[in-house]
Amino acid sequence: MSFIEEIKNRAKSNQKTIVLPEASDKRIIEAAAIALQEEYANIILLGDEDKINKIANENHFDIAKATIINPRISEKRKEYAESLYDLRKAKGMTLEQAQELILDEVYFGMMMVKKEEADGLVSGAIHSTSDTLRPALQILKTAPNTKLVSAFFVMVVPNCQYGEEGTFVFGDCGLNQNPNAEELAEIAKSSSDSFEQLVGKPAKVGMLSYSTYGSAKSELTQKVIDAKNLIKEKYPEMKVDGEFQLDSAIVPEVAASKAPTSKIAGNCNTLIFPDLNSGNIGYKLTQRFAKAEAYGPLCQGIAKPVNDLSRGCSAQDVAGVIAITCVQACQMG
User: For 150-289, which CATH superfamily applies?
Assistant: First the structure.
């Protein structure tokens, strides 16, 4: 059974309600139809009901079981605006600003999650990452004991002997541009937890660099070494090592030569990139060259399940992220 099939089966066992604020997009409506047909999620679509149904009917997408809400005419908008104002007035937001913002589908959807009228939210097919995460942080806040919100991808590489039978978590490939050593350590801890939550196997975390065990020395490599040392100090239970070049992290034969004393070199399944440049390039190379399934950017560190999408996503990608969001909602209680 594939990774995403296993995730969908887990979601079916305890169905959650996911709100999709981009229901003017054909891919989102198709993904909603997939989730409803396969019965792993309840779906709320936000937008103009006539336009949504027109797209669905023209493309033969069955969304009869979805709930469709138009924030502009919803009877909840007054209540939601007042709640948003209460949350943000100390930051200078006026009631009039809150009333205007709550008409935005992403803000409206976040408030549904805040009030537990939905269990999670998926956005990003037509919105930027900042347009998805800004309302998430304003309304939902960060999770307890979390210092940093970060993003990760689940990468599923076909016919691959590396990682966990070809499944990896890549972090951070979507949010933090140039994390310092402490931030990199927090990204690694969150990514380790996310791997174990979603894949169900122990995470083996490789801290990536252009150097392996001191083969090169610079401020760039030292940041990765410092992050690894912080992790070992703060989270001694984690299986983590580095700094590793990519081949040292995932190829046993290379690891035996370059990092013979490491207990996890050559077998890493959770890969931590030193900055957003390398992370974004790395996941896109893997997706395009290896024809990998790329689920994300998924978010970690927010109080409720909120996940971003790549604007180049397919309907099947969105359907997979919906299932992942359901599993996250189950795990978060």
Answer: Isocitrate/Isopropylmalate dehydrogenase-like (3.40.50.10750)
